[in-house]
Design goal:
heterodimer; A: alpha/beta; Rossmann fold; Alpha-Beta Plaits; 2 domains; six-stranded mixed β-sheet; about 35% helix; globular; B: mainly alpha
Chain lengths: ~325, ~240
Amino acid sequence: MSDGISNNRFAIQTLSLSRKFGDLVAVDNIDLSIKKGELFSLLGPNGAGKTTAIKMLCCLLKPSSGTATVMGHDINEDPMAVKQIIDISPQETAIAEHLNAWENLSLIGGIRGLAKTEVRKRSENLLEMVGLTKRAKEQVRKFSGGMKRRLSIAMALVADPQVLFLDEPTLGLDPQSRRGIWEHIAELKGKKTILLTTHYLEEADALADRIAIIDEGKIAALGTPQELKDSISDMQVMVVKAKNLTPDAIQGLKKIYPEVEATEEGVEIRAKQLSFYEIVDCLRPRGVVIQSTSLKQPTLDDVFLRLTGKELRE
Amino acid sequence: MRFVGLAIRNFKEMWRDPISMGLEIGIPAGFLVIFWALGRSMGDESTFAPTVLVPGIAVFGFAFLLMFSAVVLARDREGALLSRLLTAPLKPRDFILSYSLPYIPLVILQIAVCFGIGAVLGLEILGNAGLAFLILLIMGICCVELGMILGLLFAANQVSGVGSVIITLVALLGGIWIDLGTIGGVFYSVGNALPFAHAINGARAVMAYGAGFSGIATDFYWVLGYTIVFFALGVFLFRRRMAE
């Protein structure tokens, strides 16, 4: 146990946590403190280091340097104690395809040392929670992607872990299934510590108490969704709906405002100070018909763009 | 005893794969009948006597079981389920046990089928049938443990290729079709260094000559020793894989 980073207010603490794969630094000196009962999100694009970080915290991967504690247990020194109190719903659908939903839940309950009666009781509640009670005795290979994800989350909850890791829980799902899973995750808020990784901005925005934006293995920003948006409150975003928007017109805008993004209906322009007249004077002479303009509140996408110079898109 | 939950899952996954199960039982049963018929057709009923065929075909069947168990572990290793299971407080030996134990009923069934069909074909066991059964059972477990090693070393799509080589080697070096003493030379030395021929010779000695435990003790411990070594090696490899 590294006393230097132990603090009973926190469920998870990392100290210079790093992981290299050859020359590639997947996670680079991450320092995080996640409070007990908090729903914390690691937000970043594919390959940012989110899953590697989670794998280290779940003791599936040894850090190259640094360490972390989960509920006070050091991941390097006492991995078995960490494993006793965590569970994970991995990024891929990690279920036994030839078993039914009941049997999958029993499997996890069994390897986590629960009594059969306890597993049965909890499984009933969890199947009810994720809406799979009627399909509980079907082999899960017949389930849809959304149903498998819901079952995967239920499996992660069956042993009632103190800390729950949800690695991209809605990856590849349609919007309706995604929202369904958000509801289940929202029900858990405050009841247990949850570390959620996602590259969906709206997911982190809707669910997380705090967000760490991660890019190329490093934490680029940390705060509540509102704090992160406020951090770029000096930035204005103007949405221009227009017709006949030519590449020449966009180039013209970029000479005045470097951050110009073409959208389906026109352009979005980001800058610390925007001038409506300057924009109109730039577009009209180039034959662009402006239909409407409006100022937009900064989103987490804008935060990500500002911090990393990249966009975080699905 | 947390590994029991995983062992039950592996048992169910295995028994819910009817094609593989059918092959595991059908291959030794089919070969036994074919070779017995071949012997009668050739007029060589001593080389193809049930006491010779039953132990050899049983071990041959285990070689297929070896491949089956290796594929199941390799497939799980490549999927996400094993990652999830690795976050549970289980030790490497728990994992190897939970992947090995479910095959024991299948090993017993394979031996029983061979004994049953052998009996129909005229098998007469002069010694203790239980002793012959026991040495074959340990050989079956030994093959499953070897399957664990292959499943940890190779990807699922590689296992079938490697498994085919191993099946051929088991047949050649186990003296299943041709007695190793007749071949002699390097084949005899290598075959005797491995466990397969010892299991077959031990079971044949009990069946055909009525040998007791003292008569086959060397063969018995040879096979048991390999089983323990393969299990330990499987645990060691699993621990290394976990660390990776």
